[in-house]
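Issue 218. Parser rejects a valid record. Input:
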Amino acid sequence: MKKEYLYQVDIRKWIENGIDDGIMIRVSGNKVDEKYDVYLQSYLLPIDAVEASMKNENIDLHPHEMIPGIMQENGKNVYHRWGNGDGIEPITIKRNFSDVAPCSIEVAEEFRLLFNLYFNSQKNEYIDVSHGKEMTVVKMNDDGYTTVHKTYLKRYLAVKEKALIIHIDSRFIVSDASEKVEKDEVEYRKNSIFYKLNVANWERVKSRLYSKNVIYGCSLRDSNIWPYEQKEKYVDFIIGIDKNGQEICHTCDPDCLNNNFGANPTAPHYLTPVYFDRAVLQKYYSKPEVYTVESGYIRCGSQWGLDIDNENSDYVSAYLGDLGSSLSEAEQYYWKGFNKPIGGKLSPVKFQRDYMCAFSSSQSPDFVFKETYERVNQAYNQKFGWPLFLPLTDQDKYNFKTLRVPVSNSVKEFDALVLSLVKVLIDSLNKEKITAQLTDNNKDGIREISALEAWLREQGVENYGKHIKFLRNLQDLRSSGSAHRKGKGYQKATEELDVKNENYTESFSDLLKGATGFLEFMENNIERMA
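Output the parser choked on:
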């Protein structure tokens, strides 16, 4: 057998270098490989009890023993949350159900609630979803260990005023029990680390390493938990160009801006427009389960929202003061990456809403389409008792929610949006109800567009041909391009719909306008439909 394995050199190096050296810290679990059987368990201990605990290799209290219970103290029965009066408590809990049900690993409730962690059952991890950042805080790893993010662990220990003791039991096992070794012992103590390695002949086990490792919290002032929250920092944004052609930058801190009440008279006004490339919206469209982009507004659940002007197809703007008052520092830096000095101006819609205090409907093709779609669907439901378009499933709702004027002039985004538009406008046509209205006996196998065409014809609706043609061309564009390799069929479809290879943004905007025209046609003829 190799001496470095027998003396567990790699395990000892890991301990000596500090097991909290990485971002994710192993706090519990068991892993068996071809060399070692390593078991970790952790518990919180009052800081004033750490010195005495580190003088020996004994476990102060096994985590599986920390369960709610009553203890006798001075002749009285006293209930303790974790079954002991020494202030010892777990960070993770392994629950055992005596082989009646599977064992499970749980994270201490107080830890989860303090940071308001969300459990992602698919990934088997707890996540901090504040401000939409989705930071993994606790992960039950496939390698057999549970790990905790160092930042959150240190903050938790700070507010608890406790230290974390991580106990490691590592054993080197050989396949041949007949192999013999000379008895030996190695002991190591330094600062917050202690371990003892014993080499001997215990059947197949040839060396055992017991270790205690202490992890202390950060200072309470660095915990970033109220009232010790870190002071918010603010980013500088480009707000213009000076007479020498140099960029003019200014902080978005609302307290450093001019306003209508006389504050900071020499500073830029709170309502100074700041301009960004439209690609800044890609992050928010790519996660519709977290973010919602509306006409004039972006929201992250109920955590934050930002007033914007997204009516222009070339850029997005937001007020300098809103960037500081609505966005976290990290989110500000994200926006800064798309900040650019341009000779932009507020859209008429934004001007009407903000300066004239008047209601103004969006003029952007995507929001006009969505508003019309929902209005028409509701009108058909009221008249016929069924919607013109079937509701999208939960897995398909993003197709409607993320329909937009493209934020980048790319064929990839164009193809994806065509797929979504077809799914919303054609695949969702209520074929079953539409077909039921037809008098023609030949209904079997009829497709959505053909069923709609037959219904309009039987109802005596005029001038529907161009809209049916639009739908068929749109379907062909999806079938011959977005869903399959592009060939002659795709070229024909792009010619019919006037898709411009050099301007996919304008081309998809035109498709949205054509789709809206179809919806308005259906709305205008609803009274003629029996």
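Fixed in the parser; the record now loads. The first helix runs from residue 3 to 6.
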